[in-house]
Write a structure and sequence with these properties.
Length: 703
């Protein structure tokens, strides 16, 4: 009795043990017939027990799974065991994978061998293996470099792209700290901020200059992510990077073209504006003065006409060197284009102390130049102004003052300087209309719009018009915008005038539609109006009054400087307006100080090249270089381009050769009243020279 009880107890323990196992267990005879099974995982069975007990593998399993089971049993019969063979089944919950272990029973029924089959569910392990395999393929075949480091920055793995970009083999870097790539360009503070971001945010992204194995420095766009375990501890850092060195070099070339004169190497108008703003800010902080001297050469045109542009160019280069020799360290000499130069004189206690230096510049210019055996003589008329003044003014206003003073020097006989009279200028500005008078003009409907056509020079198609405000003054006649708009630039009245311009332009567009003309209109929008919190809502209300308006019929032109003042706000406004069907153009492009980052972020559709670059492009190689740079930049960022200031057939022909087809200017049409547009359009024909023009790139490909 005791032996029977012990046997029963042992059997119960065995059954409990088998019941606790997550595996499927079968007893199978040599012919593949299933005699018994044990498992609580009925969801893993290919069929209910009543269907498979007493039947063979081939009766209930797919051919491939049945073949695996037979192979395992054959192997167990030969070796005494079989392990590691796998098969898959399509079950209701999806594909499931099993790992098979088989062993023969020590005693068989009726002398025929029997086997015990144990099938373990490895579906999750199989999925993990596939994910690891996929991750491995991505790691090895990614075009971006990938490196994995431990928490201290020691490299534990890199991919092939890492080796291609850095020049190091995998064996050379494993176990080494990632610092071996450092170029030294970034300081301790840079890396301190990087590690702070990794610890606090879990990632860091930015541009880094590193060094290849051969010593060459390269720029990379780098993203680093922190990997933590279940306890939140940092176990690895994974870095993904791409080589952006060609892009950085192209950016530097564009910046050089954009900020330095191609002929003399001196700062150009853009860099001059930036340096003048810096000098003015520094003078305000230190309680000092800044002087601006605007030089225009007398007699230079005669040199060009008599001896040719090559000699004239060498004369300008020699003059640039001579003037720089007379300036002090910290002063700036810039060439604006043609025969115009500007000097910024800084760190001055009194304005009068610099006048001898100005006289020295004039004397240096008047000394003979010896070029190619020729003795050339020119002189300079110089306008001088200073900062600070009693009234607030910006860098552009300071340059305009110096320019006006220069013309006074020319009128006084040339080869001399003239100091800008701020009191006289203040008195003249006092004669302009007061804000109240302009408010009356708005109420009395004295403002009118003129429209300047914009065309595709190659096809001759009218692509739109720009609405330009004029003041039909009852006493002074038709006044241009520069004579009254600056006075209200920062005043609420400018918003009222701006909204009137939009309304009047849309009304005119409706009159054109009534005679069968569909003409898109662009309107200039000032910074103050654009930055109003309710700008989009007021625009939407205005558009609802013109239900026939189609997307693209209205376009806003904004100045580069106003767009960059509040980049985030302006970007949001542009996006909201585009949702209403209103596009944006960046006006006077190239006269501000935009970077590639700003251009990439600002969602404007069109860039309008400032007329100052187009006007002198036929003689000025620097302007041509800037135009080519701007056109290349526009193509890179998917922007359209319109050139302003096309005054002659030659201007248009050269622009077409450069690949710029859209333009406006006096060479196409002067601004006109809205009712004159239909008659002009009937008479308008593009110049034959423009119609036959072939882009320069196409000419080169056909050569």
């Amino acid at each position: 009795m005791q032996a029977q009880a012990a046997l029963s107890h042992a059997n119960n323990k065995l059954q409990a043990t088998l019941g606790a196992l997550p595996d499927l267990m079968f007893e199978v005879s040599l012919d593949g017939r299933i005699h018994q099974y044990q498992s609580h995982r009925s969801d893993l069975l290919a069929a209910p027990p009543e269907l498979f007990l007493g039947k063979c593998f081939a009766d209930i399993l797919p051919p491939q799974a049945s073949a695996v089971c037979q192979q395992a049993m054959d192997e167990a019969g030969r070796k005494g065991f079989s392990a590691g063979l796998r098969y898959a089944l399509d079950l209701p919950q999806g594909e499931c994978w099993f790992d098979l272990s088989v062993a023969p029973l020590a005693s068989s029924v009726g002398g025929a061998p029997h086997f015990i089959f144990i099938a373990r569910d490895i579906t999750e392990r199989k999925r993990a293996e596939k994910q690891l395999e996929l991750a491995g393929l991505v790691f090895q075949h990614a075009r971006e470099g990938i490196m994995v480091s431990d928490p201290d920055g020691v490299l534990v793995d890199v991919n092939e792209a890492f080796c291609r970009i850095t020049g190091y083999s995998r064996s050379e870097v494993l176990g080494k700290n990632a610092r071996l790539l450092s170029s030294g360009r970034q300081g301790k503070e840079f890396y301190r901020l990087m590690w702070t971001s990794l610890l606090q945010a879990g990632y860091w992204s930015g541009e880094v200059w590193n060094r290849r194995k051969d010593g060459e420095e390269y720029a990379e766009l780098l993203t680093i992510s922190t990997v933590r375990n279940d306890q939140g501890q940092v176990v690895q850092h994974v870095a993904l990077f791409s080589d952006i060195t060609p892009l950085k070099r192209y950016q530097l070339e564009l910046e050089s073209i954009a900020h330095f004169d191609a002929l003399t190497g001196l700062p150009n108008r853009l860099l001059l504006s930036d340096r003048l703003q810096q000098a003015m800010a520094q003078a305000a902080r230190r309680g000092q003065k800044v002087m601006v001297a605007y030089l225009d050469l007398d007699g230079f045109k005669s040199v060009n006409d008599q001896y040719g542009h090559a000699v004239g160019d060498r004369l300008l280069v020699a003059l640039g060197h001579r003037l720089q020799d007379h300036l002090r360290d910290g002063d700036t000499l810039a060439r604006l284009g043609g025969d115009e130069f500007v000097a910024i004189l800084v760190d001055l206690e009194e304005s009068e102390t610099v006048l001898p230096l100005i006289a020295g510049l004039i004397a240096a210019t008047a000394e003979p130049f010896h070029i190619d055996g020729l003795t050339l003589r020119i002189s300079a008329s110089v306008g001088v102004t200073s900062y600070p003044q009693s009234a607030e003014l910006d860098a552009d206003q300071l340059l305009r003052q110096a320019d006006q003073a220069m013309y006074q020097a020319k009128l006084a006989g040339k080869n001399r300087y003239h100091v800008f009279d701020t009191q006289r200028d203040s008195d003249m500005r006092g004669h302009f209309e007061s804000l109240e008078r302009m408010r009356q003009a708005l109420c009395r409907k004295e403002f009118v719009l003129h429209y300047q056509p914009k065309v595709n020079m190659r096809s001759g198609q009218l692509i739109g018009v720009e609405a330009l405000i004029r003041w039909q003054h009852p006493e002074r006649g038709l006044m241009p915008p520069l004579s009254f708009l600056p006075a209200i630039e920062e005043h609420q009245l400018s918003i009222d005038v701006g909204e009137w311009v939009m309304d009047a332009a849309l009304a005119q567009q409706g009159r054109w539609r009534s005679v069968g003309l569909h003409i898109p209109v662009s309107v200039n929008v000032g910074a103050l109006q654009l930055q109003q919190p309710d700008f989009v809502q007021r625009l939407q209300a205005l558009l609802q009054r013109y239900p026939d308006l189609r997307p693209g019929d209205l376009q806003f032109e904004i100045l580069e400087t106003s767009a960059l003042q509040e980049m985030q706000q302006v970007t949001a406004v542009i996006g909201a307006c585009k949702a209403l069907g209103v596009d944006f153009a960046l006006d006077d492009f190239g006269t501000g100080y935009s970077s590639l980052t700003y251009l990439r972020q600002l969602p404007v559709h069109i860039l309008k090249i400032d007329q100052s670059f187009v006007r002198d492009m036929l003689q000025n190689t620097e302007d041509q270089a800037i135009l080519r740079g701007v056109l290349g930049l526009a193509r890179s960022f998917g922007r359209e381009v319109i050139a302003e200031g096309v005054e002659t057939q030659a201007h248009g022909a050269l622009l077409l050769q450069m690949g710029c087809e859209a333009a406006q200017g006096y060479g196409i049409a002067r601004p006109m009243i809205g009712d004159a547009i239909p008659d002009w359009l009937q008479r308008w024909n593009s110049h034959p020279q423009w119609l036959e023009s072939v882009p320069q790139t196409l000419q080169e490909s056909l050569a």
